[in-house]
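Lecture notes, part 5. Sequence design as translation. It can be helpful to think of inverse folding as translation between two languages: the language of shapes and the language of residues. The source text, in structure tokens, appears below.
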């Protein structure tokens, strides 16, 4: 067995502080950025950090921000500008060749610009002229459904509410958002099974939990503030198990910068008791085995099931039919290991299941969430202290945007309420989500694209096709703080509108305004930037929406768009009338230090489902789905012999594995598609064109670290997809499950397509695709290897 390089230092600690300080200096915002860091996640006059959606702890801390958050703050608070002078120096064609890292570091967007095709440059445009062009193009559409209005989770509640109202008054529900690409299976399945598609836990439940099962998460990289709570829970005697194909070294130990004994004396907290390395996409199979054992050994909560649930008998029958051979094949670990986990669940009086996109971003992502909910329902772990479902969102307000009505499939109750409150008809047909919207864009069915934040083309699969499609529309509108790749494929009319950042003051004729966000656990908290805006020409997102509405609808509308943008209290009063749980919004948000928790019926064992019960759901896909995909690819590979992934030295050695399951990962030097740098110290690499593989697998192939590899996505025999090839990528060692490899998102996005997604939620399968590997310069054997 080859030795795996291990990050020996605890997560966070001095390396995190040093890295954060360097990033503040890298963005030339050490003083301005540091001042914002001190205001991050503070209860009085602070702003909510955009770096993740982890809740604020109830106890006040002088500094409440992590390495990831500091890097996001550094990016936003830089004073270098991407202004008219910058755009005059660089053509759009030239900028198309810049990397995401280079675009991230050019500076803040500081004035409105439009694309001049004759000169191939972005040119300055006045706000008034920009609004006029936008209104003209929208009025020319044959149908409002020819426009797509995308939303990023960076948008706070108040402008998000205005934005969805603007779009629906225009006449469409084409309101995709970034949750379509991250936690949509959570929203869909928890809504179906529990009545609300959100976490059933509060932060305090982590203090009382006795068992925490972490599925498909890497908090040390993606939401480091969670580490403090995990360390606290573990110190209270809670057992914590990480279920992940990758052994993430950032989860082993945690050095808390808030503790002097940690920083001065080198102490650290242990967090995870064990790591269960299932195969990629094996979560539903693992949960099936656990549920099967619990039922067959009478370890379930029969009283809870009888009183509060429906659908138990069909699930029980389905579980009975699943063989242990298929379960082991489906998850990649032994029956004994699965039963060991099930026994932990059986013995725990309070269990939390927490998960990230390692659960959701699969073809069987809906099934994965359903089986987590099934497990919790079997044990009666919904509606008691220290237990429940805890999906962890990535963007700070992606959950709040959905609550505010940013949804392509809105509930009828929301549409009816909006019609009543605003005395305006609302569109009834469901709109496009990210996947169906991208397909419509590529097919030429959309004539207008608007992005309220985000980097749509790069975040979605089929990036190149989406970028090309954007050049064929009549109008593209981008509201944002930074230039990104999606903005560099202009149409006949391409307009960029720069907005204020989360750290900056919003001052109107009515005075200084504050906004609100919703975190991963349904807590509504205020956020108020304190920095002087980097440019006097920037506008708030609320103001931009109001101005577009005024130019499009005219001044005779009954909806007071401008008044709302000047006084966020007016927006909140409308929210209080239109959105459940926000009654007396203005009073509640002002009279509680850290906001208020939205009522969650399932916490009180009230089930707002189709039958008034919590519902068990039988998975749609076979638990051997991933194994079957790999078997199909292997069969196809052997028969066609078109690509060989190894030097053909010894076909009988059993060491010539060629078919792999690839997953996408992120480094802690990035936030979503924003690339801050190239260091990933937990994984021992300082480059992004890498392919992670277990060193033992390299040995079996006769490969070694540093080899260059081409990655080809396998297409099934019934697929109409063309081959997708990525590389060359440099082999790098990682403690990852056998038959599994990993590459960085978004660089590997072109391996994924818009047709491969979960059936109900439509989430793209970023976390699991079958690939064939070929070492560069290796011989290609055209003979059948069978």
């Amino acid at each position: 067995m080859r030795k795996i390089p291990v990050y020996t230092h605890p997560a966070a600690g001095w390396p995190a502080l040093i890295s954060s300080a360097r990033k503040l200096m890298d963005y030339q915002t050490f003083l301005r950025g540091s001042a914002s860091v001190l205001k991050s996640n503070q209860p009085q006059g602070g702003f909510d950090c955009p770096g993740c959606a982890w809740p604020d702890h109830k106890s006040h801390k002088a500094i409440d921000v992590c390495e990831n958050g500091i890097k996001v703050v550094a990016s936003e608070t830089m004073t270098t500008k991407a202004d008219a002078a910058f755009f005059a120096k660089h053509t759009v064609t030239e900028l198309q060749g810049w990397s995401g890292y280079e675009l991230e570091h050019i500076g803040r967007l500081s004035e409105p610009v439009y694309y001049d095709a004759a000169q191939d440059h972005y040119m300055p445009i006045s706000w008034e002229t920009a609004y006029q062009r936008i209104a003209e193009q929208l009025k020319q559409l044959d149908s409002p459904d020819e426009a797509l209005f995308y939303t990023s989770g960076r948008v706070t509640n108040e402008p998000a509410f205005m934005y969805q109202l603007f779009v629906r008054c225009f006449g469409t529900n084409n309101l995709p958002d970034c949750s379509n690409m991250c936690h949509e299976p959570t929203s869909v399945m928890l809504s179906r099974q529990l009545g609300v598609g959100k976490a059933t836990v509060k932060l305090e439940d982590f203090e009382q939990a006795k068992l925490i099962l972490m599925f498909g998460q890497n908090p040390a990289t993606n939401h480091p503030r969670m580490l403090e709570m995990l360390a606290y829970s573990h110190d209270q005697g809670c057992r914590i198990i990480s279920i992940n194909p990758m052994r993430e070294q950032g989860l082993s130990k945690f050095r808390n910068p808030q503790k002097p004994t940690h920083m001065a004396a080198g102490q650290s907290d242990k967090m995870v008791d064990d790591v269960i390395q299932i195969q990629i996409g094996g979560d539903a199979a693992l949960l099936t085995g656990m549920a099967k054992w619990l039922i067959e050994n009478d370890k379930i909560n029969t009283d809870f099931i009888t009183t509060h649930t429906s659908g138990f008998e069909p699930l029980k029958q389905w579980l009975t039919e699943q063989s242990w051979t298929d379960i082991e094949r489906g998850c990649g670990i032994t029956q004994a290991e699965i039963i060991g986990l099930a026994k932990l669940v059986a013995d725990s009086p309070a269990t939390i299941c927490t998960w990230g996109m390692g659960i959701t971003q699969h073809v069987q992502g809906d099934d994965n969430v359903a089986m987590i909910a099934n497990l919790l329902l079997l044990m009666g772990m919904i509606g008691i202290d220290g237990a429940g479902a805890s999906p962890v969102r990535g963007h700070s307000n992606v959950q709040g945007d959905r609550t505010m009505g940013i949804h392509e499939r809105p509930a009828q109750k929301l549409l009816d309420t909006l019609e009543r409150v605003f005395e305006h008809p609302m569109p009834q047909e469901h709109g496009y989500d990210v996947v169906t919207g991208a397909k419509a864009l590529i097919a030429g069915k959309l004539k207008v694209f608007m992005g309220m934040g985000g980097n749509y083309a790069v975040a979605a699969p089929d990036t190149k096709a989406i970028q090309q499609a954007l050049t064929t529309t009549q109008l593209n509108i981008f509201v944002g703080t930074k230039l990104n790749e999606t903005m560099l494929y202009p149409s006949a009319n391409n307009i960029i509108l720069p907005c204020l950042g989360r750290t900056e003051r919003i001052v109107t004729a009515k005075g200084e305004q504050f906004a609100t966000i919703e975190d991963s656990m349904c807590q509504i908290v205020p956020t108020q930037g304190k920095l002087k805006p980097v440019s006097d020409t920037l506008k708030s997102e609320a103001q931009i929406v109001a101005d577009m509405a005024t130019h499009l609808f005219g001044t005779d509308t009954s909806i007071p768009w401008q008044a709302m943008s000047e006084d966020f209290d007016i927006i909140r009063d409308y929210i209080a009338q239109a959105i459940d749980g926000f009654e007396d919004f203005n009073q509640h948000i002002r009279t509680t230090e850290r906001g208020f928790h939205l009522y969650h019926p399932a916490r009180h064992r009230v089930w707002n489902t189709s039958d008034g019960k919590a519902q068990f759901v039988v998975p749609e896909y076979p638990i051997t789905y991933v194994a079957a995909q790999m078997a199909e690819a292997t069969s196809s590979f052997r028969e066609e012999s078109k690509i060989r992934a190894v030097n053909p030295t010894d076909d009988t050695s059993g060491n010539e594995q060629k078919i792999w399951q690839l997953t996408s990962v992120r480094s802690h030097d990035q936030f979503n598609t924003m690339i801050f740098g190239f260091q990933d110290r937990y994984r021992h690499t300082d480059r992004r064109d890498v392919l992670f593989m277990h060193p033992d697998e390299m040995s079996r192939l006769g490969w070694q670290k540093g080899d260059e590899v081409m990655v080809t996505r396998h297409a099934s025999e019934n697929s109409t997809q063309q081959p997708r090839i990525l590389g060359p990528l440099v082999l790098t060692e990682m403690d990852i499950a056998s038959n599994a490899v990993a590459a960085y998102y978004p660089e590997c996005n072109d391996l994924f397509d818009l047709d491969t997604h979960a059936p109900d939620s439509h989430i793209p399968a970023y976390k699991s695709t079958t690939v064939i590997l070929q070492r560069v310069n290796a011989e290609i054997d055209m003979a059948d290897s069978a």
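The translated text above is only one of many valid answers, since several sequences can fold into similar shapes. The longest strand covers residues 724-733.
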